[in-house]
Every structure is written in C-alpha cells, then in structure tokens.
Amino acid sequence: SVLVDCDNEKVEEIRTKASSFGTSKRKRKNTQESVVNEQIKFVGDQLGKIANALEQFTVEWRWKDFMTTSYEVYLIIL
Predict the structure, then answer these.
(1) DSSP tally for the chain: helices H, then strands E
(2) How far is it between the farthest Cα atoms of the chain?
(3) Which domain of life is it from (predicted)?
(4) Considering the domain boundaries, does residue 20 fall inside one?
(5) Is 59 inside a domain boundary?
(6) Would you say the C-alpha torsion 60, 64, 69, 70 has a positive or negative sign?
(7) By residue range, what is the domain housing residue 47?
(8) Is 20 exposed, middle or buried (0-12, 13-18, 19+ CB in 10 A)?
(9) What is the pLDDT of residues 52-73, one digit of tens each?
(10) Based on the structure, what is the number of domains in the chain?
C-alpha cells in the first residue's frame, strides 16, 4: 500500500483498531471453542454414565437369566 499525504497518528490509529479487531475475533473464537469443548466433555461424561448403567443392567439380566435356567435345570433333575 502507498500512503499519500497522511498523518502518521491516523495510520497508527487504524493499525491499532485493526489489530484490536483481530484480537477480539480470536478471543471470541477461543471462547466459542471452549464452550464447544465443554459441551463435548459433558456429552462424553453422560455417555459414559449411560454405558455403565447398560453394563450393570446387562450383568443383572444375565445373572437372573442364569439363575432361572439353573432353577429350571434343577427342577428337571428332580
């Protein structure tokens, strides 16, 4: 770019505003990324809890199924 008959203070002011705008834009982007990361972490934690609950349910269901089958076999043997 070529500056023609321009006041250096005005040029510096424009540069400062442009720099400030870029910094603000980066801060907003970082804040948005931080919020998204927190949401991803929250969803991951919730999925972990769901997985643990399903695993516990499956173990209990298998145990009941095993006990029912064992009891039926016991009755057949008698």
Answers:
(1) 1, 0
(2) 110
(3) Eukaryota
(4) no
(5) yes
(6) positive
(7) 32-77
(8) exposed
(9) 999 998 888 888 888 887 767 7
(10) 1
Residue 57 lies in a domain: yes
Q: What is the pLDDT of residues 10-35, one digit of tens each?
A: 555 656 665 566 667 777 778 888 88
Residue 65 lies in a domain: yes
Burial class (CB within 10 angstroms; exposed 0-12, middle 13-18, buried 19+) of 5: exposed
pTM, whole model, 2 decimals? 0.47
Is 24 exposed, middle or buried, given 0-12, 13-18 or 19+ CB atoms closer than 10 A? exposed
Nearest CA among 59, 54, 38, 13 for reference residue 67: 59
Please report, as a single letter, which amino acid is at residue 11.
V
